[in-house]
């Protein structure tokens, strides 16, 4: 059991550490990251209940509706809702890259609990594949959500803030939906389609990480100059 639990938790903690250490400036409080991770973890149970209810009633069971409604929209909306109403106005969320950290934290909390349940049901044999695909994809959706949340937080234009908040919700929904649709529609050859999809997703996410860090490089000197004697 310990081996199974370790295999289920390790990918989430590794990815969280990776993105935390990518922050080239001041690191956010560990307590807040743990808090958002736990909130993401707790989302699994109400979402699983809703998905089970739809499945039992035979509603929205087509490939498109399962992928974009029951997986993409449902999961990403709840993550976004937690982010917006719990994290967005918090004092520790004060920079562009902070959005990425909190987005990843919420997403990996969700992915880790989901992974634990899946490995206990299906065995440790699927651990590597789960780490490379579902857990990683949740982290990358979190990067994109957090990037646009962080951009909205640092913008001084209200209309731009609103547009960025909309993008922070719908971009992860669309990408998550396509991820699940690949698995639904190409169940035999999914790995040949999903692998390039994941590579592109990683490249996009790492590009956003770089931009967020570069943004802080531009802002920090201005803030320091303001306090010079």
From TrEMBL:
Enzyme class: hydrolase
One GO-annotated biological process of the protein: proteolysis
Membrane topology, from the record: Multi-pass membrane protein
InterPro entries recorded: Peptidase_PrsW_arch/bac, PrsW
Pfam families named among the record's database cross-references: PrsW-protease
EC annotation from Swiss-Prot or TrEMBL: 3.4.-.-
Top-rank taxon: Bacteria
PANTHER family linked to this entry: PROTEASE PRSW
Function: Involved in the degradation of specific anti-sigma factors.
Stated family: Belongs to the protease PrsW family.
Cell location: Cell membrane
GO molecular function annotation: peptidase activity
TM spans (from-to): 6-21, 33-54, 66-88, 100-121, 127-150, 162-183, 189-206
Keywords for the protein's UniProt record, in alphabetical order: Cell membrane, Hydrolase, Membrane, Protease, Transmembrane, Transmembrane helix
Protein name: Protease PrsW
GO cellular component, as recorded: plasma membrane
């Amino acid at each position: 059991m310990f081996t199974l639990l370790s295999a289920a938790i390790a990918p989430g903690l590794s990815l969280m550490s990776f993105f935390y250490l990518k922050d080239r400036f001041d690191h956010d409080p560990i307590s807040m990251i743990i808090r958002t991770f736990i909130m993401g973890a707790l989302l699994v149970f109400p979402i699983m209940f809703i998905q089970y209810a739809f499945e039992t009633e035979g509603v929205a069971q087509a490939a498109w509706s399962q992928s974009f409604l029951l997986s993409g929209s449902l999961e990403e909306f709840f993550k976004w809702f937690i982010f917006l109403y719990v994290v967005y106005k918090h004092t520790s969320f004060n920079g562009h890259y902070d959005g990425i950290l909190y987005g990843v934290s919420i997403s990996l909390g969700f992915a880790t609990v989901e992974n634990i349940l899946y490995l206990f049901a299906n065995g440790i044999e699927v651990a590597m594949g789960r780490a490379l695909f579902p857990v990683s994809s949740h982290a990358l959706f979190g990067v994109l959500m957090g990037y646009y949340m962080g951009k909205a937080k640092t913008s001084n234009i209200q209309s731009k803030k609103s547009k960025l908040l909309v993008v922070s919700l719908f971009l992860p929904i669309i990408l998550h939906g396509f991820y699940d649709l690949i698995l639904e529609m190409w169940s035999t050859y999914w790995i040949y389609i999903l692998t390039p999809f994941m590579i592109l997703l990683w490249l996009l996410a790492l590009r956003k990480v770089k931009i967020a860090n570069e943004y802080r490089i531009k802002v920090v000197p201005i803030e320091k100059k303001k306090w010079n004697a």
